[in-house]
Every structure is written in C-alpha cells, then in structure tokens.
Amino acid sequence: MSSLNTFGAILTYAIEQETRLADYYKKAGNTDQSAAADKRRVKLERARSLYVLEITLEPIEGLDEANYALNLDDTSAAGQKVVASTAARFYCEVAPSINVRDAQRILEKCGKEYAALA
Do 14 and 44 meet the contact criterion of CB atoms below 8 Å apart? Predict the structure, then answer.
C-alpha cells in the first residue's frame, strides 16, 4: 500500500524530503543546494497550507514512496547527482496527479531545479 495516495500525503512527503535534502547537501558541504532545498521546503509548506483545503479528496493511485528512496549517505559529486535525479523523478511523477494548478506548478518547478542538478 502506497502512502502517497492523497495530495496532503504527497506534499508532506515532499516537505520531509526537502528537509532531508537540505541536511544532506549541508553535510556534503554544498551550502547553495542546502539553502535551495530549504527554500523549496518553505514553498511546499505554503502550498500545503493554502491548497489542501481546496482539494477534492480524490485518492491518488500508482505512487509509492519506495520508488523515491534517497541514498543520503553518499555525499560525493556522483552521489549528489543520483539524489538530484531521484528527487527530479519524484516531482515529475507526482505533479500530474495534483488537481490544483498552482500547487502542481510548485511541484513542477522543484522537479526542474533537481533535473538541472542531475
């Protein structure tokens, strides 16, 4: 059973992911990406507070948290590319399932920012 089955669950996962990524990049000595992850987290938190109540609570199917697991132990340049690629794939795959366009745009932008790092 997937835990990514509602809009709120997706945003909660994304916020937690950005928190982990900010810590990861900080540990890797990449303060610019750590700050960028923190900025994305703030945007996602704002989206969750603004749009969760507007969402019709239709279930979302086909998304599984296990598909987006991050290896945050490898802080090498190659490891950072793999992490960015996984994060980009997460945002690319979850954005179309969100039925509020503004929230969807935020997720898409997060994905583009990670795709540029991958």
Answer: yes
